Amino acid sequence: MTELEKGPTGRRRGRGARERILSTAQQLFREQGINRTGMNELCAAAEVSKRTAYQHFGGKDELVAEYLRGFDPSVLSGVFDRTDLTPRERLLAAFDIPPTTPLCPYIGAAVELHDPQHPASQYARDYKKAVAARLADTAREAGAADPEQLGEQLALLIDGAAARTRVLDADAFPTAAAIAAALIDNAIPASVGGDR
């Protein structure tokens, strides 16, 4: 094998390169942001050449979109698929987020990219709509009079608490959970809300 056939550190190109690039992108994008992460830095950290990176991803925009595509496609399945909780309890469990959790990657990408036509912006929109839909489905199970409205309200509270926690470096989720409980109790008729 000649030096030209080897990557920057002597590794054979292609073996796990795509996974290394995505793993490194996830780490760097979360730690320092999408815009502050250059392709030179990303390639060096992933131990691939820029040529190899561009063979796997047509450009940084495609890499950012693929980075977002890799997150939680089942939309908070650890909360919504729990059978040990009532629907009301599942709605409240969506607020059990440790304050050390990094900012939602979809919010981070949408804020940084400023381009509604960017492929990553579409993934962010789709994901955020899916979260609201899962909340609405669970609200419907709980007997909410207007489950879509409650789902949107709770989705807004989750995103707001995530952003506020990050900006203030203080846990905003307990306050958001208290507001959510009041919204849920107001949305579910007393005759249905036997699990309160």
Overall strand count: 0
Q: How do the SSEs run, as a string of H and E? A: HHHHHHHHHH
Main sheet summary? none
Q: What shape does the CA trace take?
A: elongated
Average pLDDT works out at: 87
- Helical content stands at 55-70%
**From the alpha-carbon coordinates, what is the Rg to the nearest angstrom?**
21 Å
Unreliable spans? 1-13
Count the helices. How many?
10
Strand residue percentage = under 5%
DNA-binding region: 38-57
Pfam families: TetR_N
Domain HTH tetR-type: 15-75
Protein name: TetR family transcriptional regulator
Structure description:
Residues 15-75 form the HTH tetR-type domain. Residues 38-57 bind DNA. Pfam families: TetR_N. The protein has 196 residues and is mostly helical. The chain is built from 10 helices and no strands. The chain has helices at residues 17-32, 39-46, 50-56, 60-69, 77-80, 87-93, 105-113, 119-142, 147-168, 173-187. α8 (119-142) packs across α9 (147-168). The termini are far apart. The model is unreliable at 1-13 (pLDDT under 50).
Helix and strand topology:
Elements: H1 17-32, H2 39-46, H3 50-56, H4 60-69, H5 77-80, H6 87-93, H7 105-113, H8 119-142, H9 147-168, H10 173-187
Helix pairs in contact: 1-2, 4-8, 6-8, 7-8, 8-9, 9-10
Domain HTH tetR-type: 15-75
DNA-binding region: 38-57
Protein name: TetR family transcriptional regulator
